[in-house]
């Protein structure tokens, strides 16, 4: 009897020890897993950030279109506008507070710019004319240009004067035509973008482009007319967004998924976009240089979506000027251990960016009976230089 009692006590002691050791092993392992998750998350964004803007700066796009002239229903939407202000390589949308993650949007690809037909202008455009003379001996029997098409006109290379590209809507086709379509490119056709009686509605064409825009809309022989796909408004570069939601770092194409639905309702499909698990917070700041310099002068938080909407015209202009001077992005990623401890093992929320920002983790989801302080956290920070804007200053 005594032997049985002693054996039972020993068995209970061993079982308790194994259980304690096992729990501690799980906690330790979960801590390492959180650290690795934060490292992976930072590495993923780092990869895209280092290539941000390559499609804008390193390809032929910037040399073809150093700026835009665009008009829409009586409003000049772009007047020789700088490409950088229209197509930012990186944009940060700030969370509403230190308890809400930021969202980082990164340019990762070029627009479908060459999907339409490319036609040459064969005669200098008079500055007062709304006619482009186009021709291509290799397309003698092709039907390429239609009334109602949207086109982008590009100055003949080399574009030493940095003439902007101009968007027009084709309102009339004359010359060698058939049913308002240019069919004889060998002889050439006149493509109109004016407000001639009987033409289509010309939402994209000001009455007098040469007084509407800062730079004259006159293109030399050899300039190119790009016929754009239906519904095209302006060159749309490919972007991805990084956001923290559903207990993970998500990477998704905002054109192919509803970001708000994805981040707020966490449908089962969120796993298709999860790049790193157990991520609870993402914070980012712009590294902004002084004019004409590559040296970062200040680190600044981005505005929230509501703040940006409330900006005055002057405030928006100032914000876009700052975006043109962004030389780097500073990131902080916080991962949480999956295994809660029995007590409060985290006394205070971590500080990031040289402790200038103390995060509020009280809102992260936890099981009933637990608080955010029952978990261990790992924070990883990095500064990523934006190579393409640096090289193309």
UniProtKB/TrEMBL annotation:
This protein's source sits in the domain of life called: Bacteria
Q: Which GO terms describe its biological process?
A: type IV pilus assembly
The identity of this protein, by name, is: Type IV pilus assembly protein PilW
Taxonomic source organism? Aromatoleum tolulyticum
**One Pfam assignment:** PilW
Please give the InterPro entries that the UniProt record associates with this protein. PilW (IPR032092)
């Amino acid at each position: 009897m005594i032997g049985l009692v002693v054996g039972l006590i020993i068995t209970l002691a061993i079982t308790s020890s194994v259980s304690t050791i096992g729990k501690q092993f799980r906690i330790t392992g979960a801590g390492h897993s959180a650290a690795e998750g934060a490292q992976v998350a930072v590495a993923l964004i780092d990869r895209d950030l280092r290539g941000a803007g390559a499609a804008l700066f390193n390809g032929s796009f910037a040399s073809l279109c150093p700026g835009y002239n665009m008009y829409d229903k009586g409003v000049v939407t772009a007047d020789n506008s700088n490409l950088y202000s229209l197509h930012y390589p990186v944009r940060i949308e700030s969370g509403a507070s230190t308890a809400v993650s930021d969202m980082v949007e990164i340019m990762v690809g070029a627009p479908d710019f060459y999907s339409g037909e490319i036609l040459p202008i064969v005669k200098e455009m008079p500055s007062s004319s709304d006619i482009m003379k186009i021709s291509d001996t290799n397309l003698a029997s092709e039907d390429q240009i239609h009334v109602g098409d949207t086109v982008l006109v590009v100055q003949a290379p080399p574009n030493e004067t940095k003439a902007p590209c101009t968007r027009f809507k084709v309102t009339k086709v004359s010359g060698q035509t058939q049913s308002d379509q240019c069919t004889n490119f060998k002889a050439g056709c006149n493509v109109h973008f004016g407000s001639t009686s009987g033409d289509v509605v010309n939402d994209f064409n000001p009455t007098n482009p040469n007084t509407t825009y800062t730079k004259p809309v006159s293109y030399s022989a050899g300039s190119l007319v790009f016929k754009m796909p239906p519904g095209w408004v302006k060159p749309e570069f490919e972007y991805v967004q990084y956001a923290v939601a559903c207990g993970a770092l998500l990477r998704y194409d905002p054109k192919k998924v509803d970001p708000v639905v994805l981040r707020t309702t966490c449908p089962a499909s969120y796993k298709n976009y999860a790049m790193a698990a157990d991520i609870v917070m993402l914070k980012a700041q712009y590294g902004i240089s002084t004019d004409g310099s590559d040296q970062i002068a200040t680190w600044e938080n981005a505005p929230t979506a509501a703040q940006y909407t409330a900006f005055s015209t002057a405030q928006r202009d100032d914000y876009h000027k700052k975006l043109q001077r962004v030389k780097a992005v500073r990131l902080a990623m916080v991962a949480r251990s999956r295994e809660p401890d029995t007590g409060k093992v985290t006394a205070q929320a971590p500080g990031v960016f040289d402790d200038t920002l103390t995060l509020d983790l009280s809102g992260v989801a936890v099981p009933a009976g637990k608080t955010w302080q029952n978990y261990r956290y790992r924070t990883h920070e990095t500064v990523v230089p934006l190579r393409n804007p640096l090289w193309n200053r």
